[in-house]
Every structure is written in structure tokens, then in C-alpha cells.
Specification:
Helix content: 10-25%
Order of helices and strands: HHHHEEEEEEEEEEEEEEEEH
Distance between the termini: 49 Å
Largest sheet: 5 strands, antiparallel
Protein name: F-box protein At4g10190
Shape: globular
Length: 239
């Protein structure tokens, strides 16, 4: 079967870098297309989600132009407040992206899972009142079951008491999983990242050592990863 070059380029654009290396062996034609400038240009742009002044934007970034780069706004997401009778929009305080879903905390301390394209929303009721010191993450199990991890810190000096709980979408309820004083999350470095079902963030041990902490939603357990080098080099990573 013969495919048009434009269609092949579109297909190759969806493949990972590792897959492209293998696909070069398919044929001379595919090898040439993978090295084609058209594909290079398509793959040089990355789409990122940014939060600016409590509003969520979709941005396009040219990865080939490191210097003098321009970030272009491609879309702006609007979330209406169900508690307001006016057309007032919800002000987003923080976001975490997970498989096209956004887990958002709002400026007025509410929690929501939001699909900005289908406009579907799920407002999460708290087990107790949320505070700005609470951290939330969205991930999924090996059975593709989504869960929310909630972490709340108590205390004014280390070691803090960190209590963590799980929100189950099936029962629409929270349950406490455990507590620890072994590590904490510094307020100014509490960014969470989603990768392949699990979530990761930069944590701080009671011995004042930085490490990468992850949470597995299948086993509902934490796993730590040591980080090399100077601890101060991770400040940008966590912002």
C-alpha cells in the first residue's frame, strides 16, 4: 500500500524519538522523510500549558530557537464558576496536567478536575478545609483508574508532620493513607509533575537533603530517588 508523503509525515510526527530511530529501517523512503526538514520543523514546536494571572493558556514554543525565542498563545481556557450567577470565571491558583485532564486548585481554595476541551468538570469536596499549604496530585493505576493524592503539612518547624490521603472517584470520598515526619515539601518548591501514571516532586528530608519523591497509585506507596550534585541546582527544576 502506498501512502502519500503528507500522510506519512503526519504519522511520523506522532512517533517518539526512539521510535523514529527504528522506523528509519523500514525503507529508504521513510529514512529520507524522517530526515526531511518538514518533519524537523513540525517536531521543533512544543505545546505547553501555562498559568498566567490565574488564567490557563495553551502556548507554542519553538525548541530550535533557544535565543530570541517567542512563545505564542494558541488558546485560552475559560472555567465558569458554578457558585456564581454571573459569568464570572474561576481564578486558578495551581494546575497539574495528567493525560489531558487538569487538576486545579482555585484561588478561593477549591479543588477541581477539569477537561478544558470537553468542558467536563468534577468539583472535589474536601474531607476537611483546604489550605494553601496543601498539595494535590492526579495519577492513575495500572488499571487506568484515576486517583487524587492529597498531602497536608502541620507544624511551624521541621520535622513537619505530613498527612496524606487518597480521593477515590468511584466512592467520591477521601480516605487517610498514612502520616510521616521523615520528609516534607518546601512551600516555594512544591511543584508536582505527572509521568506515566505516577507523580513526582522535589522533597526535603529531615536531614536537610533534597531528593526526588514519587507516588505509585497502584500500590499507594512512595518511592524516593537520590539526586546528584549541588542541592542548590534543583531550585529551577522545582519552580
Amino acid at each position: 500500500m502506498y501512502l502519500l508523503e503528507e500522510l506519512v509525515v503526519e504519522i511520523l510526527d506522532k512517533a517518539s524519538t526512539a521510535s523514529l530511530a527504528r522506523l528509519r529501517c523500514v525503507s529508504k523512503r521513510w529514512n529520507a522523510l524522517i530526515k526531511d526538514v518538514r518533519l524537523a520543523e513540525k517536531r521543533s514546536h512544543a505545546t505547553v500549558i501555562m498559568l498566567i494571572d490565574f488564567v490557563v493558556y495553551l502556548m507554542s514554543v519553538n525548541l530550535r530557537e533557544i535565543h530570541n525565542n517567542k512563545v505564542m498563545v494558541t488558546d485560552q481556557f475559560s472555567l465558569k464558576d458554578p457558585l456564581s450567577k454571573s459569568s464570572e470565571e474561576v481564578k486558578i491558583w495551581n494546575i497539574l496536567h495528567c493525560d489531558g485532564l487538569l487538576l486545579c486548585t482555585t484561588k478561593d481554595l477549591r479543588l477541581i478536575v477539569w477537561n478544558p476541551y470537553s468542558h467536563e468538570t468534577s468539583w472535589i469536596q474536601p474531607r476537611s478545609s483546604y489550605t494553601k499549604l496543601d498539595y494535590f496530585a492526579l495519577g492513575k493505576t495500572s488499571c487506568n483508574k484515576y486517583k487524587i493524592l492529597g498531602m497536608q503539612q502541620f507544624g511551624e518547624v521541621m520535622p513537619y508532620l505530613l498527612e496524606y490521603e487518597i480521593y477515590d472517584f468511584t466512592s467520591s470520598s477521601w480516605r487517610v493513607v498514612g502520616k510521616t515526619t521523615d520528609w516534607s515539601i518546601e512551600t516555594w518548591r512544591g511543584r508536582v509533575m505527572y509521568v506515566n501514571g505516577n507523580t513526582y516532586w522535589l522533597a526535603y528530608s529531615k536531614d536537610k537533603v533534597d531528593f526526588l519523591q514519587s507516588f505509585d497509585y497502584s500500590t499507594e506507596s512512595f518511592r524516593s530517588v537520590s539526586l546528584p550534585g549541588d542541592r542548590h541546582s534543583y531550585h529551577i527544576f522545582s519552580d
